[in-house]
Amino acid sequence: MAEEDLMKARKKKLEKLKGLGINPYPNRYARSHLITDIIKTSNNIKPGIKTKRKASIAGRVMAKRDMGKILFLDLKDDSGMIQLYIDKGEITELDFKVLEEVDIGDFLGVKGFVYRTKRKELSIWVKGLSMLAKSLRPLPAKWHGLKDLELRYRKRYLDLIMNPEVKDKFVKKIGLIKLFKDWMDDHGFLEVQTPILELVYGGAMAEPFVTHHNALNTDFYLRISTEMYLKRLMVGGFERIYEINTVFRNEGIDASHLQEIPNHFEFYWAYQTYEGLMKFAENMISHVLKKVLGTLKLKYQGVTFNFKIPYKRVKFRDVILKETGIDINIHNTYEKLKKEIINKKIKEVDPKKCLHYAALLDEFFKRIVRPKMIQPVFITHYPIELKPLAKRNEVDRTKSNAFQLLVNGWELINAFDELNDPVEQHERLLEQRRYSDMGDKEAHPLDEDFIGAMEYGMPPMAGFGFGLDRFCTLVLGFENIRGSVFFPTLKPE
User: Do residues 261 and 244 touch, judged by C-beta distance below 8 A?
Assistant: First the structure.
């Protein structure tokens, strides 16, 4: 039967319920137990023996089996599922009429006694029932194992109903993120919140989304990072702060990128250095993995990743030299690097699409080198052109005191010693403005208010951004990063 016909039939049942004087969508229902509580406390119940344990439960009907005198329903709540045992001769005439209109997908409230059938199935022997929400659209019959990921994302509510393992993953993700918060709290950090709407975006190399504030008649940007306001708080006197919140980046879609990033994790730590943050990151990740998996090894899409500490540490220049034979200390201008890429016939990189040296170097690294970084590795000492907010290295002033943690070819962490010299920061952002004038949509804008805040004095510190959604994708085995969020952004149907 077509869905449209099934819906017509259900709407007729809805009208029948109303005709019986029953509200199919009551305001409340008092339940005494969650299903899992009944399951956990019923191990000693013997088959075929009626108990005096009363229970009032509520949930969604997931299956219906009519055996004539006896009707069986499977009822599922947030905690689990249990069988309902209904002797049609023991319920009231009104309850029987309600029962005739029950479909899979409806929400019911039931009262009865805990019971184990002769076939040893734990059940509720129903003595009364209430319609709590009549479903008008039937649940899909062939949703489980559905390969069309986009359809599953569009109708995530069905995915959660029909695939319990999907819901379980999201529950684990929520718990995993809480472990990071607990770690930060236990290490003396304060969780803060900063603005989502910004007059001047910043803190990352990304194109922003633009929106309009009607009351102020002003265009604002959805933040691409929390960095600029977190640093303002550091100027204001905080020394250890973090935020796990949503940022927005108007960039491409692939297995590791989102445009709306719900769990961007960023923190700042006064009087700390990037070397200290590497150790801190290793210990934090190890702590979380042991709590969640009980091991420092995880398997994702056929690859086993070993997070045993310490992670390998490799300088940016050295890893490029090893993987490509190109020495960026020699090919240190746009023209030199462009010429070498052409000479080596590296077709994955089109220098014509890169407007300046930093853009070309970044594209070259992301396309050619980063995908080869599978096991956890800290890449350090990025060229200063790629880190406009980072301090220069004390020995090699062309490099920054920075690192990225790469796993599976993905950037998980981006961290550095924060530049706190307002004069140099202003010069660096002016350089970024030059890139912007050339047409680079990802160049960092000049934020004069931020420079003004720095001029009051900002303590030496280190900070990092951590893509928790990417990390959860790996740890919990989501098919891709879009699968790791409840409702990923999709093209309109």
Answer: no
Domain boundaries, the chain: 3-133, 162-311+376-484
Check residue 46 and report its DSSP letter: P
| 303-353 residue pLDDT tens | 999 999 999 999 999 999 999 999 999 999 999 999 999 999 999 999 999
Give the CATH number of domain 162-311+376-484.
Answer: 3.30.930.10
Q: Please give the model's pTM, rounded to 2 decimal places.
A: 0.93
Is residue 341 within 8 A of residue 332, CB to CB? The reply is: no
Q: Could you read off the pLDDT of 253-299 as tens digits, one per residue?
A: 888 899 999 999 999 999 999 999 999 999 999 999 999 999 999 99
Q: Is residue 289 a contact partner of residue 295, using CB atoms and an 8 Å limit?
A: yes
Architecture of domain 3-133: Beta Barrel (2.40)
The span from the CA of 280 to the CA of 433, in Å, is 34
Query: Are 3-133 and 162-311+376-484 in the same CATH fold?
Result: no
CB atoms within 10 A of CB 308: 12
Q: Looking up tokens 């305001």, which residue turns up? A: 27
The residue among 62, 70, 59, 65 whose CA lies nearest residue 108 is 59
Token pair, residue 126, equals 């129903």
Contacts 24+ apart (CB under 8 A), 49-55: 49/116, 50/113, 50/115, 50/125, 51/113, 51/114, 51/115, 52/113, 53/113, 53/114, 54/111, 54/112, 54/113, 55/111, 55/112, 55/113, 55/114, 55/124
Residue 162 contacts residue 144 (beta carbons within 8 Å): yes
